[in-house]
Amino acid sequence: MSDPFVRQRIVPGFGEEGQERLASARVAIVGVGGLGCPAAQYLAASGVGGLTLIDADSVQTSNLPRQILFGPTDVGSPKVDAAATALAASSPWCRVETRAIRLGPDDAGVLKGHDVVIDATDTWVSRRDVFSVTRSLGVPLVWGAVQGWHGQVTVFGDRVGLDDVFPDRGLDPLDGCEGQGVIGPVCGLVGTAMATQTLLALLGEQTMEGRLSIVDGRAGGWRDVPVRSRAGVRA
């Protein structure tokens, strides 16, 4: 097979070294839904060497318009298994591990050894648990949320954490899609932005830590909100 990454290698500043860094990287994706599916697909296709998919849910018919790794024949199957099968078919060079669990605050061992973690969950309980674990491990966390026509993306690291962006611990309305609904392509916008930020973190480039990017899918634009650390407020 010819080199599938030739178009990436010729990007100025990326080259062979960048591709090798991706090949040796491990990324954990918590939540294999509307955000986790496009993020996983693009990271695997880009040549990331290892993905760990973490999700306790099974595929439902109502998932299909936005969770693009799944099809009708996957309904009823564990999401992590269906996603792993799809990724193996499209990106056989990526080693995919699966954990059919809901990540909790005592599950640091599940994320240990990963270079970046993606939080693609959709409840504030899960978001706070994922942030708590990544903060304890010192691992960068790429974070996203979506509802209706709107979405948000940022990166949490040493300087900025979840409480700096959401000091009221989840009073923001971006919480799940069952009650409020979501537009499928907006999940793609946010999920691919999360994949891009993950690549930047893996390559040692500057990420959007310190900025919250907000997309309005109906208006077709992004805007950035600066975020500063709130001293003493940590999960």
The residue ranges in which pLDDT falls below 50 over 5 or more consecutive positions are none
- Biggest sheet: strands, sense, closure? 8 strands, mixed
Strand content: 15-25%
CATH-defined architecture: 3-Layer(aba) Sandwich
- The CATH topology name reads Rossmann fold
Given the structure, what is the number of helices?
A: 8
- CATH homologous superfamily (4th level) name: NAD(P)-binding Rossmann-like Domain
**First-last Cα distance:** 47 Å
Spell the H/E element sequence. Answer: HHEHEHEHEHEEHHEE
Radius of gyration, in angstroms, nearest whole number: 17 Å
Q: How much helix is in the residues?
A: 25-40%
Number of domains: 1
Q: In CATH, what is the class?
A: Alpha Beta
Mean pLDDT: 92
* Form type: globular
Number of strands: 8
Category by helix and strand content: alpha/beta
Q: Reading side by side through the largest sheet, how are the strands ordered?
A: 3-2-1-4-5-6-7-8
SSE inventory with pairings:
Layout: H1 6-9, H2 15-23, E1 26-30, H3 36-46, E2 50-54, H4 79-90, E3 95-99, H5 108-111, E4 116-119, H6 124-137, E5 141-147, E6 150-156, H7 162-165, H8 184-202, E7 211-216, E8 221-226
Parallel strand pairs: 1-2, 1-4, 2-3, 4-5
Antiparallel strand pairs: 5-6, 6-7, 7-8
